[in-house]
Predict the structure.
Amino acid sequence: MYSYSHPHPAVTTDIVIFTILEERLQVLLIRRAAEPFRNSWALPGGFVNIDEDLETGALRELQEETGIRDIYLEQLYTFGRPDRDPRERVITVAYYALVPIDQLQSIEAASDAAALAWHPVDRLPALAFDHGLIIDLARQRLAAKLDYSTIALQFLPRSFSLGELQNVYEVIAGETIDKRNFRKRILGAGFLVDTGKLRRGNRHRPARLYRAKSPGTLSYIR
Amino acid sequence: MYSYSHPHPAVTTDIVIFTILEERLQVLLIRRAAEPFRNSWALPGGFVNIDEDLETGALRELQEETGIRDIYLEQLYTFGRPDRDPRERVITVAYYALVPIDQLQSIEAASDAAALAWHPVDRLPALAFDHGLIIDLARQRLAAKLDYSTIALQFLPRSFSLGELQNVYEVIAGETIDKRNFRKRILGAGFLVDTGKLRRGNRHRPARLYRAKSPGTLSYIR
DNA sequence: CCAAAAGTGTTCACCGTACACCCATGA
DNA sequence: TCATGGGTGTACGGTGAACACTTTTGG
Protein backbone atom coordinates (compact mmCIF):
# COMPACT_ATOMS: atom_id res chain seq x y z
CA MET A 1 0.00 0.00 0.00
CA TYR A 2 2.43 2.69 1.14
CA SER A 3 5.79 2.99 -0.59
CA TYR A 4 8.45 5.54 -1.29
CA SER A 5 8.23 5.24 -5.03
CA HIS A 6 5.42 7.65 -5.80
CA PRO A 7 6.13 11.21 -6.87
CA HIS A 8 4.98 13.51 -4.10
CA PRO A 9 2.92 16.63 -4.69
CA ALA A 10 3.62 19.95 -3.06
CA VAL A 11 1.33 20.77 -0.15
CA THR A 12 0.42 24.27 0.90
CA THR A 13 -2.03 25.94 3.22
CA ASP A 14 -4.07 28.93 2.15
CA ILE A 15 -6.02 31.03 4.59
CA VAL A 16 -9.19 32.99 4.02
CA ILE A 17 -8.94 35.76 6.59
CA PHE A 18 -12.22 37.47 7.29
CA THR A 19 -13.05 40.57 9.18
CA ILE A 20 -15.85 43.08 9.29
CA LEU A 21 -14.85 46.51 8.10
CA GLU A 22 -16.97 49.38 6.89
CA GLU A 23 -20.16 47.37 7.42
CA ARG A 24 -18.93 44.68 5.06
CA LEU A 25 -17.46 41.23 5.25
CA GLN A 26 -13.93 41.55 3.93
CA VAL A 27 -11.07 39.23 3.07
CA LEU A 28 -7.37 39.92 3.45
CA LEU A 29 -5.49 39.39 0.18
CA ILE A 30 -1.88 39.67 -0.83
CA ARG A 31 -0.71 40.91 -4.18
CA ARG A 32 1.54 38.40 -5.88
CA ALA A 33 5.01 39.60 -6.77
CA ALA A 34 6.02 36.53 -8.79
CA GLU A 35 4.72 34.50 -11.69
CA PRO A 36 2.34 32.88 -12.24
CA PHE A 37 -0.53 35.29 -11.61
CA ARG A 38 1.97 38.08 -11.02
CA ASN A 39 0.16 41.17 -9.71
CA SER A 40 -3.02 39.21 -9.13
CA TRP A 41 -4.43 39.06 -5.66
CA ALA A 42 -4.14 35.81 -3.74
CA LEU A 43 -4.82 34.26 -0.37
CA PRO A 44 -2.02 34.32 2.18
CA GLY A 45 -0.42 30.91 2.50
CA GLY A 46 2.54 28.80 1.60
CA PHE A 47 4.26 25.48 1.87
CA VAL A 48 3.78 23.18 4.78
CA ASN A 49 7.10 22.33 6.39
CA ILE A 50 7.98 18.69 6.39
CA ASP A 51 7.79 18.32 10.16
CA GLU A 52 4.99 20.72 10.84
CA ASP A 53 1.33 20.06 11.51
CA LEU A 54 -1.07 21.48 8.94
CA GLU A 55 -2.72 23.84 11.37
CA THR A 56 0.66 24.93 12.73
CA GLY A 57 1.73 25.69 9.19
CA ALA A 58 -1.35 27.78 8.58
CA LEU A 59 -0.76 29.68 11.83
CA ARG A 60 2.85 30.26 10.86
CA GLU A 61 1.94 31.60 7.43
CA LEU A 62 -0.65 33.83 9.06
CA GLN A 63 1.99 35.22 11.38
CA GLU A 64 4.69 35.61 8.74
CA GLU A 65 2.57 37.22 6.07
CA THR A 66 0.20 39.31 8.12
CA GLY A 67 1.52 39.48 11.67
CA ILE A 68 -1.75 38.08 12.96
CA ARG A 69 -1.65 35.79 16.01
CA ASP A 70 -4.09 34.11 18.33
CA ILE A 71 -7.19 34.19 16.22
CA TYR A 72 -9.88 31.71 15.38
CA LEU A 73 -8.73 29.25 12.69
CA GLU A 74 -10.58 26.30 11.20
CA GLN A 75 -9.84 23.89 8.40
CA LEU A 76 -12.15 24.45 5.45
CA TYR A 77 -11.50 22.01 2.60
CA THR A 78 -8.64 20.58 0.59
CA PHE A 79 -8.32 21.58 -3.03
CA GLY A 80 -6.29 19.40 -5.30
CA ARG A 81 -7.23 19.67 -8.94
CA PRO A 82 -4.14 18.66 -10.87
CA ASP A 83 -4.22 21.82 -12.98
CA ARG A 84 -4.82 24.30 -10.19
CA ASP A 85 -1.19 25.41 -10.27
CA PRO A 86 0.45 25.64 -13.70
CA ARG A 87 3.95 24.86 -12.38
CA GLU A 88 3.63 21.61 -10.51
CA ARG A 89 1.10 19.58 -8.63
CA VAL A 90 0.08 21.59 -5.59
CA ILE A 91 -2.52 20.41 -3.13
CA THR A 92 -3.70 23.09 -0.76
CA VAL A 93 -5.37 22.62 2.56
CA ALA A 94 -7.54 25.69 2.94
CA TYR A 95 -8.30 27.27 6.31
CA TYR A 96 -10.35 30.23 7.29
CA ALA A 97 -9.69 32.67 10.10
CA LEU A 98 -11.59 35.50 11.74
CA VAL A 99 -9.98 38.74 12.87
CA PRO A 100 -11.68 40.73 15.63
CA ILE A 101 -12.40 44.29 14.62
CA ASP A 102 -10.29 45.68 17.45
CA GLN A 103 -7.18 43.98 16.10
CA LEU A 104 -7.24 45.42 12.63
CA GLN A 105 -4.64 48.13 13.25
CA SER A 106 -2.01 45.68 14.43
CA ILE A 107 -1.97 43.90 11.10
CA GLU A 108 -0.43 46.50 8.86
CA ALA A 109 2.05 47.28 11.57
CA ALA A 110 3.38 43.74 11.86
CA SER A 111 3.32 42.63 8.25
CA ASP A 112 6.30 43.26 6.04
CA ALA A 113 4.07 43.19 2.99
CA ALA A 114 2.72 46.54 1.89
CA ALA A 115 0.93 44.43 -0.70
CA LEU A 116 -1.75 43.39 1.80
CA ALA A 117 -5.26 44.73 1.48
CA TRP A 118 -8.79 44.06 2.66
CA HIS A 119 -11.37 43.42 -0.05
CA PRO A 120 -15.13 43.16 0.38
CA VAL A 121 -16.16 39.59 -0.43
CA ASP A 122 -18.85 40.82 -2.76
CA ARG A 123 -16.39 42.94 -4.74
CA LEU A 124 -13.36 40.78 -5.24
CA PRO A 125 -10.64 41.53 -7.77
CA ALA A 126 -9.27 38.90 -10.16
CA LEU A 127 -7.78 36.16 -8.05
CA ALA A 128 -4.87 33.79 -8.55
CA PHE A 129 -5.31 30.03 -8.88
CA ASP A 130 -8.66 28.74 -7.62
CA HIS A 131 -8.70 31.19 -4.74
CA GLY A 132 -12.06 32.54 -5.80
CA LEU A 133 -13.60 29.13 -5.23
CA ILE A 134 -11.93 28.85 -1.87
CA ILE A 135 -13.24 32.19 -0.66
CA ASP A 136 -16.69 31.34 -1.87
CA LEU A 137 -16.76 28.09 0.07
CA ALA A 138 -15.40 29.81 3.18
CA ARG A 139 -18.14 32.39 2.98
CA GLN A 140 -20.80 29.71 2.79
CA ARG A 141 -19.34 27.87 5.76
CA LEU A 142 -19.13 31.03 7.81
CA ALA A 143 -22.72 31.99 7.04
CA ALA A 144 -23.93 28.50 7.92
CA LYS A 145 -22.07 28.52 11.23
CA LEU A 146 -23.69 31.76 12.30
CA ASP A 147 -26.94 29.88 12.77
CA TYR A 148 -25.79 27.12 15.03
CA SER A 149 -22.67 28.35 16.80
CA THR A 150 -21.19 31.32 18.59
CA ILE A 151 -18.69 31.95 15.80
CA ALA A 152 -19.84 35.54 15.32
CA LEU A 153 -18.25 36.44 18.65
CA GLN A 154 -14.83 35.88 17.09
CA PHE A 155 -15.24 39.13 15.18
CA LEU A 156 -15.72 41.20 18.30
CA PRO A 157 -13.57 42.40 21.19
CA ARG A 158 -13.90 40.79 24.59
CA SER A 159 -16.84 42.99 25.48
CA PHE A 160 -19.34 44.32 23.02
CA SER A 161 -22.87 45.61 22.71
CA LEU A 162 -25.78 43.65 21.32
CA GLY A 163 -26.01 46.17 18.52
CA GLU A 164 -22.46 45.38 17.47
CA LEU A 165 -23.18 41.67 17.56
CA GLN A 166 -26.33 42.11 15.54
CA ASN A 167 -24.34 44.05 13.00
CA VAL A 168 -21.98 41.10 12.56
CA TYR A 169 -24.93 38.83 11.88
CA GLU A 170 -26.51 41.23 9.44
CA VAL A 171 -23.36 41.88 7.48
CA ILE A 172 -22.55 38.19 7.05
CA ALA A 173 -26.07 37.04 6.33
CA GLY A 174 -26.62 40.02 4.06
CA GLU A 175 -30.01 40.83 5.48
CA THR A 176 -31.43 42.90 8.29
CA ILE A 177 -32.72 41.29 11.46
CA ASP A 178 -35.48 42.47 13.76
CA LYS A 179 -33.82 43.89 16.83
CA ARG A 180 -36.25 42.51 19.42
CA ASN A 181 -36.21 39.01 17.97
CA PHE A 182 -32.44 39.05 17.75
CA ARG A 183 -31.99 40.06 21.36
CA LYS A 184 -34.50 37.51 22.57
CA ARG A 185 -32.80 34.75 20.65
CA ILE A 186 -29.24 35.65 21.61
CA LEU A 187 -29.89 36.29 25.27
CA GLY A 188 -32.09 33.21 25.44
CA ALA A 189 -29.27 31.07 24.07
CA GLY A 190 -27.44 31.79 27.29
CA PHE A 191 -23.86 32.14 26.14
CA LEU A 192 -23.57 35.84 26.94
CA VAL A 193 -23.17 37.50 30.30
CA ASP A 194 -23.84 41.12 31.12
CA THR A 195 -20.61 42.79 32.21
CA GLY A 196 -22.55 45.51 34.01
CA LYS A 197 -20.58 48.10 32.11
CA LEU A 198 -21.83 50.57 29.57
CA ARG A 199 -20.31 51.93 26.43
CA ARG A 200 -20.50 55.70 26.88
CA GLY A 201 -19.18 58.55 24.83
CA ASN A 202 -21.37 58.23 21.80
CA ARG A 203 -23.95 60.86 21.17
CA HIS A 204 -26.78 58.53 22.03
CA ARG A 205 -27.98 56.22 24.75
CA PRO A 206 -25.15 54.06 26.15
CA ALA A 207 -25.21 50.36 25.35
CA ARG A 208 -24.84 47.55 27.87
CA LEU A 209 -21.71 45.55 27.29
CA TYR A 210 -21.74 41.78 27.22
CA ARG A 211 -19.02 39.18 27.01
CA ALA A 212 -18.94 35.51 26.06
CA LYS A 213 -19.53 33.11 28.93
CA SER A 214 -16.68 30.95 27.63
CA PRO A 215 -14.42 33.30 25.72
CA GLY A 216 -12.38 31.80 22.91
CA THR A 217 -14.42 28.60 22.90
CA LEU A 218 -16.90 27.91 20.16
CA SER A 219 -20.29 26.86 21.52
CA TYR A 220 -23.04 25.17 19.59
CA ILE A 221 -26.69 26.12 19.76
CA ARG A 222 -29.46 23.52 19.83
CA MET B 1 6.23 31.99 -2.01
CA TYR B 2 6.10 28.88 -4.19
CA SER B 3 9.35 27.14 -5.07
CA TYR B 4 10.62 23.70 -5.94
CA SER B 5 13.04 23.52 -3.07
CA HIS B 6 10.79 22.22 -0.32
CA PRO B 7 10.66 18.55 0.50
CA HIS B 8 7.23 17.27 -0.47
CA PRO B 9 5.12 15.07 1.76
CA ALA B 10 3.32 11.98 0.57
CA VAL B 11 -0.41 12.49 0.04
CA THR B 12 -2.97 9.75 0.37
CA THR B 13 -6.72 9.45 0.48
CA ASP B 14 -8.45 7.28 3.04
CA ILE B 15 -12.11 6.40 2.83
CA VAL B 16 -14.54 5.67 5.61
CA ILE B 17 -17.07 3.39 3.92
CA PHE B 18 -20.32 3.13 5.81
CA THR B 19 -23.23 0.83 5.40
CA ILE B 20 -26.07 -0.44 7.52
CA LEU B 21 -25.89 -4.11 8.25
CA GLU B 22 -27.54 -6.18 10.95
CA GLU B 23 -29.26 -3.09 12.36
CA ARG B 24 -25.93 -1.39 12.90
CA LEU B 25 -23.83 1.29 11.30
CA GLN B 26 -20.74 -0.48 10.02
CA VAL B 27 -17.43 0.48 8.45
CA LEU B 28 -15.49 -1.44 5.85
CA LEU B 29 -11.91 -2.11 6.97
CA ILE B 30 -8.96 -3.83 5.41
CA ARG B 31 -6.44 -5.88 7.29
CA ARG B 32 -2.93 -4.63 6.71
CA ALA B 33 -0.48 -7.13 5.29
CA ALA B 34 2.63 -4.97 5.69
CA GLU B 35 4.41 -3.04 8.38
CA PRO B 36 3.77 -0.76 10.12
CA PHE B 37 0.59 -1.83 11.87
CA ARG B 38 0.84 -5.22 10.21
CA ASN B 39 -2.34 -7.20 10.89
CA SER B 40 -4.10 -4.16 12.23
CA TRP B 41 -7.27 -3.01 10.55
CA ALA B 42 -7.14 0.14 8.46
CA LEU B 43 -9.24 2.29 6.19
CA PRO B 44 -9.08 1.57 2.47
CA GLY B 45 -7.00 4.17 0.70
CA GLY B 46 -3.70 4.92 -0.89
CA PHE B 47 -1.49 7.37 -2.69
CA VAL B 48 -2.88 10.09 -4.88
CA ASN B 49 -1.46 9.88 -8.36
CA ILE B 50 0.46 12.91 -9.47
CA ASP B 51 -2.00 13.87 -12.20
CA GLU B 52 -5.18 12.78 -10.52
CA ASP B 53 -7.79 14.81 -8.71
CA LEU B 54 -8.20 14.00 -5.02
CA GLU B 55 -11.76 12.78 -5.42
CA THR B 56 -10.81 10.75 -8.47
CA GLY B 57 -8.05 9.14 -6.44
CA ALA B 58 -10.45 8.26 -3.68
CA LEU B 59 -12.88 6.75 -6.18
CA ARG B 60 -10.06 4.77 -7.77
CA GLU B 61 -8.91 3.37 -4.41
CA LEU B 62 -12.49 2.50 -3.61
CA GLN B 63 -12.78 0.57 -6.85
CA GLU B 64 -9.41 -1.11 -6.60
CA GLU B 65 -9.64 -2.22 -3.01
CA THR B 66 -13.32 -3.00 -2.67
CA GLY B 67 -14.82 -3.12 -6.15
CA ILE B 68 -17.33 -0.45 -5.16
CA ARG B 69 -18.43 2.05 -7.82
CA ASP B 70 -20.94 4.82 -8.20
CA ILE B 71 -21.66 5.56 -4.58
CA TYR B 72 -21.97 8.72 -2.55
CA LEU B 73 -18.56 10.18 -1.68
CA GLU B 74 -17.74 13.35 0.21
CA GLN B 75 -14.56 14.92 1.46
CA LEU B 76 -14.34 14.83 5.24
CA TYR B 77 -11.16 16.41 6.58
CA THR B 78 -7.44 16.42 5.99
CA PHE B 79 -5.21 14.86 8.61
CA GLY B 80 -1.58 15.83 8.64
CA ARG B 81 0.09 15.37 12.00
CA PRO B 82 3.77 14.90 11.25
CA ASP B 83 3.94 11.72 13.32
CA ARG B 84 0.81 10.06 12.01
CA ASP B 85 2.86 7.68 9.86
CA PRO B 86 6.11 6.39 11.36
CA ARG B 87 7.86 6.01 7.99
CA GLU B 88 7.62 9.38 6.33
CA ARG B 89 5.42 12.44 6.30
CA VAL B 90 2.03 11.41 5.00
CA ILE B 91 -0.87 13.80 4.72
CA THR B 92 -4.19 12.10 4.13
CA VAL B 93 -7.30 13.62 2.68
CA ALA B 94 -10.10 11.63 4.27
CA TYR B 95 -13.39 10.95 2.50
CA TYR B 96 -16.46 9.09 3.53
CA ALA B 97 -18.74 7.01 1.38
CA LEU B 98 -22.11 5.33 1.81
CA VAL B 99 -22.95 1.91 0.39
CA PRO B 100 -26.61 1.09 -0.26
CA ILE B 101 -27.70 -2.06 1.48
CA ASP B 102 -28.65 -3.71 -1.79
CA GLN B 103 -25.09 -3.48 -3.07
CA LEU B 104 -23.39 -5.27 -0.24
CA GLN B 105 -23.03 -8.61 -1.98
CA SER B 106 -21.19 -7.17 -4.95
CA ILE B 107 -18.33 -6.01 -2.75
CA GLU B 108 -16.77 -9.27 -1.74
CA ALA B 109 -17.20 -10.51 -5.27
CA ALA B 110 -15.23 -7.71 -6.85
CA SER B 111 -12.51 -7.15 -4.29
CA ASP B 112 -9.32 -9.13 -4.51
CA ALA B 113 -8.78 -8.70 -0.80
CA ALA B 114 -10.16 -11.45 1.38
CA ALA B 115 -8.90 -9.22 4.16
CA LEU B 116 -11.93 -6.93 3.90
CA ALA B 117 -14.54 -6.92 6.62
CA TRP B 118 -17.41 -4.85 7.96
CA HIS B 119 -17.11 -3.70 11.57
CA PRO B 120 -19.79 -2.03 13.67
CA VAL B 121 -18.64 1.51 14.43
CA ASP B 122 -19.33 1.03 18.09
CA ARG B 123 -17.20 -2.11 18.26
CA LEU B 124 -14.06 -1.28 16.34
CA PRO B 125 -10.88 -3.33 16.54
CA ALA B 126 -7.45 -1.75 17.05
CA LEU B 127 -6.87 0.53 14.10
CA ALA B 128 -3.75 1.56 12.22
CA PHE B 129 -2.45 5.14 12.20
CA ASP B 130 -5.04 7.73 13.28
CA HIS B 131 -7.83 5.90 11.51
CA GLY B 132 -9.86 5.73 14.71
CA LEU B 133 -10.01 9.52 14.80
CA ILE B 134 -11.01 9.64 11.16
CA ILE B 135 -13.88 7.20 11.62
CA ASP B 136 -15.07 9.08 14.64
CA LEU B 137 -15.20 12.37 12.78
CA ALA B 138 -16.97 10.73 9.85
CA ARG B 139 -19.59 9.32 12.16
CA GLN B 140 -20.25 12.75 13.66
CA ARG B 141 -20.56 14.31 10.23
CA LEU B 142 -22.92 11.63 9.03
CA ALA B 143 -25.13 11.95 12.09
CA ALA B 144 -25.26 15.73 11.72
CA LYS B 145 -26.18 15.50 8.05
CA LEU B 146 -29.14 13.26 8.79
CA ASP B 147 -30.94 16.23 10.28
CA TYR B 148 -30.64 18.68 7.44
CA SER B 149 -30.17 16.66 4.27
CA THR B 150 -31.43 13.65 2.41
CA ILE B 151 -28.18 11.76 2.93
CA ALA B 152 -29.93 8.81 4.55
CA LEU B 153 -31.37 7.87 1.18
CA GLN B 154 -27.89 6.92 0.02
CA PHE B 155 -28.07 3.80 2.17
CA LEU B 156 -31.18 2.50 0.47
CA PRO B 157 -32.06 1.03 -2.91
CA ARG B 158 -33.93 3.11 -5.45
CA SER B 159 -37.25 2.26 -3.88
CA PHE B 160 -37.79 1.59 -0.23
CA SER B 161 -40.40 1.63 2.50
CA LEU B 162 -40.71 4.31 5.14
CA GLY B 163 -39.96 1.68 7.75
CA GLU B 164 -36.62 0.98 6.10
CA LEU B 165 -35.82 4.67 5.96
CA GLN B 166 -36.77 5.12 9.59
CA ASN B 167 -34.48 2.26 10.46
CA VAL B 168 -31.56 4.08 8.82
CA TYR B 169 -32.25 7.14 10.92
CA GLU B 170 -32.57 5.16 14.12
CA VAL B 171 -29.43 3.16 13.61
CA ILE B 172 -27.29 6.19 12.86
CA ALA B 173 -28.74 8.43 15.53
CA GLY B 174 -28.70 5.58 18.01
CA GLU B 175 -32.20 6.26 19.27
CA THR B 176 -35.72 5.26 18.41
CA ILE B 177 -38.08 7.66 16.67
CA ASP B 178 -41.85 7.87 16.91
CA LYS B 179 -43.25 6.37 13.75
CA ARG B 180 -46.07 8.84 13.17
CA ASN B 181 -43.87 11.87 13.70
CA PHE B 182 -41.19 10.46 11.45
CA ARG B 183 -43.61 9.84 8.61
CA LYS B 184 -45.17 13.27 8.97
CA ARG B 185 -41.80 14.95 8.90
CA ILE B 186 -40.34 12.96 6.00
CA LEU B 187 -43.39 13.11 3.79
CA GLY B 188 -43.88 16.77 4.65
CA ALA B 189 -40.33 17.55 3.54
CA GLY B 190 -41.46 16.68 0.05
CA PHE B 191 -38.45 14.89 -1.37
CA LEU B 192 -40.11 11.50 -1.62
CA VAL B 193 -42.65 10.28 -4.14
CA ASP B 194 -44.93 7.30 -3.79
CA THR B 195 -44.10 4.73 -6.46
CA GLY B 196 -47.54 3.18 -6.15
CA LYS B 197 -45.91 -0.18 -5.65
CA LEU B 198 -45.96 -2.36 -2.59
CA ARG B 199 -43.38 -4.62 -1.07
CA ARG B 200 -45.13 -7.98 -0.73
CA GLY B 201 -43.95 -11.36 0.37
CA ASN B 202 -43.32 -10.69 4.02
CA ARG B 203 -45.53 -12.25 6.56
CA HIS B 204 -47.20 -8.98 7.41
CA ARG B 205 -48.95 -6.08 5.78
CA PRO B 206 -47.16 -4.90 2.60
CA ALA B 207 -45.36 -1.57 2.73
CA ARG B 208 -45.77 1.23 0.22
CA LEU B 209 -42.58 1.90 -1.68
CA TYR B 210 -41.22 5.39 -2.16
CA ARG B 211 -38.34 6.78 -4.16
CA ALA B 212 -36.34 10.00 -4.02
CA LYS B 213 -37.74 12.82 -6.11
CA SER B 214 -34.21 13.60 -7.32
CA PRO B 215 -32.31 10.33 -7.03
CA GLY B 216 -28.58 10.59 -6.48
CA THR B 217 -28.77 14.29 -5.63
CA LEU B 218 -28.38 15.43 -2.06
CA SER B 219 -31.13 17.84 -1.01
CA TYR B 220 -31.06 20.12 1.97
CA ILE B 221 -33.92 20.63 4.36
CA ARG B 222 -34.76 24.07 5.67
C1' DC C 1 -34.20 70.13 21.43
C1' DC C 2 -32.74 66.99 18.15
C1' DA C 3 -30.46 63.10 16.07
C1' DA C 4 -29.12 58.49 16.87
C1' DA C 5 -28.88 54.18 18.67
C1' DA C 6 -30.59 51.45 22.92
C1' DG C 7 -34.02 49.04 24.88
C1' DT C 8 -38.48 46.65 25.50
C1' DG C 9 -43.65 42.71 24.80
C1' DT C 10 -47.28 40.73 22.63
C1' DT C 11 -49.66 38.14 19.23
C1' DC C 12 -49.94 34.50 16.00
C1' DA C 13 -48.80 30.80 12.95
C1' DC C 14 -46.27 26.86 12.57
C1' DC C 15 -43.71 22.88 14.01
C1' DG C 16 -41.89 19.26 16.84
C1' DT C 17 -43.51 16.03 20.30
C1' DA C 18 -46.21 12.95 22.89
C1' DC C 19 -49.28 9.39 22.54
C1' DA C 20 -52.44 4.22 21.06
C1' DC C 21 -54.95 1.65 18.11
C1' DC C 22 -56.46 -0.92 13.84
C1' DC C 23 -54.86 -3.14 9.28
C1' DA C 24 -53.06 -6.48 5.95
C1' DT C 25 -50.45 -10.30 5.24
C1' DG C 26 -48.16 -15.03 5.37
C1' DA C 27 -47.33 -18.81 8.00
C1' DT D 1 -55.60 -17.23 14.39
C1' DC D 2 -51.64 -15.08 15.43
C1' DA D 3 -47.34 -12.73 14.99
C1' DT D 4 -45.35 -9.00 12.57
C1' DG D 5 -44.55 -4.74 10.79
C1' DG D 6 -47.64 -1.07 8.17
C1' DG D 7 -50.40 2.68 8.61
C1' DT D 8 -53.05 6.60 10.72
C1' DG D 9 -54.70 11.82 13.86
C1' DT D 10 -54.97 14.97 17.54
C1' DA D 11 -53.72 17.96 21.26
C1' DC D 12 -50.28 20.78 23.33
C1' DG D 13 -46.30 23.57 24.21
C1' DG D 14 -42.46 25.96 22.40
C1' DT D 15 -40.30 28.63 18.99
C1' DG D 16 -39.59 31.87 15.16
C1' DA D 17 -41.67 36.03 12.93
C1' DA D 18 -44.08 40.24 12.61
C1' DC D 19 -44.64 44.56 14.50
C1' DA D 20 -43.80 50.38 17.10
C1' DC D 21 -42.79 53.15 20.62
C1' DT D 22 -40.09 55.10 24.61
C1' DT D 23 -35.40 56.02 26.67
C1' DT D 24 -30.91 57.96 27.11
C1' DT D 25 -27.30 60.41 25.70
C1' DG D 26 -24.04 64.06 23.35
C1' DG D 27 -23.91 67.78 20.55
Residues 178, 180-181, 184-185, 188, 200-206 of chain B lie near DNA strand C (CB under 10 Å from a C1'). Residues 151-212 of chain B form a domain with the Arc Repressor Mutant, subunit A fold (CATH 1.10.10.10). Chain B has a mean pLDDT of 94. Chain B touches chain A at residues 1-4, 6-12, 32, 34, 45-54, 75, 77-78, 80-82, 85, 87-91, 93 (CB under 8 Å).
